[in-house]
Amino acid sequence: MDIQTADRIGTTVEAALLYHPEAYKLFKEWNSASVKVNVSVMVHGVTESYPIYCIMTNEAPQYCFKGGVSQFGNNRGTSGFYKTINDELGLSTSGGNKNIMPRYKIKKTGPHPKGGTYSYVDRWRIVKRADNGAMEIWVSDGSRWGGFPCYRLWPVPDDEYC
Prior knowledge:
The protein is an alpha+beta fold. The protein is built from 3 helices and 5 strands; from the N terminus they run H-H-E-E-H-E-E-E. The chain has helices at residues 2-19, 21-29, 80-88; strands at residues 36-43, 46-57, 121-129, 135-141, 149-154. Strand 4 (135-141) and strand 5 (149-154) form a beta hairpin. Helix 1 crosses helix 2 and helix 1 (2-19) packs across helix 3. The model has no long low-confidence stretch (mean pLDDT 87).
């Protein structure tokens, strides 16, 4: 179910970027050091590590997509590109969106990059790879750091999540 949801989110964002050239330009240009994190993903037994930039998030488990990137819209998800994504996914900006919550509550093992341990995954991250600019969809935990990306689910899911 989560992989299908990630596919739906990824496909929606790709289509929206195609029809909104100004948002696509911002997506390609977005390189803020404040949201750059290093991640690792294992696919077919091979681990790859690289940095990503967070573009959009649903900060709390059942909320719409929004973020602190004012160029994409306001922080409530009710304007700009954020609104387009929320509308396309049928998400409410004022109510709960339980249909978008990750269903598989897995907790990543190992030490958390910011110290301590991981929490259970409960939210989504739409990210851009810093090395090649590709868009990816990740599930993240509800840690006190606002949710650290734990497992990539789109375009190719992490072996550990499947």
